Amino acid sequence: MVFGCFLAWETRLVSIPALNDSKYIGMSVYNVVIMCIIGAPISYILSDEQDASYLIISAFIIFCTTGTLCLVFVPKIIELRRNPQGTIEKRMVRATLKPPKRTDSDSDVSDMQEQIKKAENDRQIFIRRLHEREQMLQVLIEQLGDDALGDVEGHPARRPSKPRSIERLRIEGKAAVGSAEEKVD
């Protein structure tokens, strides 16, 4: 019985339904243990009555073996009636004793990897856009000429090192447009 319990415990995580009988084997072992616990004292008490003792011991033995066989084989017969071809539908077949990996952790890892790839792609796109805008800024600064660039920073070849506030750029932009219109007149 101990060896049967050991085998049932070791095969409890097998994911092939035809091999995973550990629950039914455990119930069979429980059935045998209960019958032995009940049958032994009754047999001892009825030791003087040979016919009654024989009848009760025989009934316990028949009940134990029949119950064990039913617990092990009836679920397989029911499964065979449900699925006569014996194919496994929507089940992962693994012939190992290791527990199957949780799909939650797998999906979390794959989701995290997808997010990392997306973030890296977005970063590359933003870097490309930044370089394009910097090149466009350089072209616009060259079109404005040395006077406009000198007004911006004081040095004709340098871009502004500090970002300006939006309000300051709007004010300076209006003043630059106004002074450009005065020069044209």
UniProtKB/TrEMBL annotation:
Pfam families: 7tm_3 (PF00003)
Keyword Magnesium set for record: no
GO MF: G protein-coupled GABA receptor activity
Membrane-crossing segments per the record: 29-46, 52-74
Biased composition (Basic and acidic residues): 164-173
Major place of residence: membrane
One of the GO BP terms on file: gamma-aminobutyric acid signaling pathway
Region of interest (Disordered), ranges: 149-185
Protein's cellular compartments: Cell membrane
Name assigned to this protein: Putative gamma-aminobutyric acid type B receptor subunit 2 isoform X3
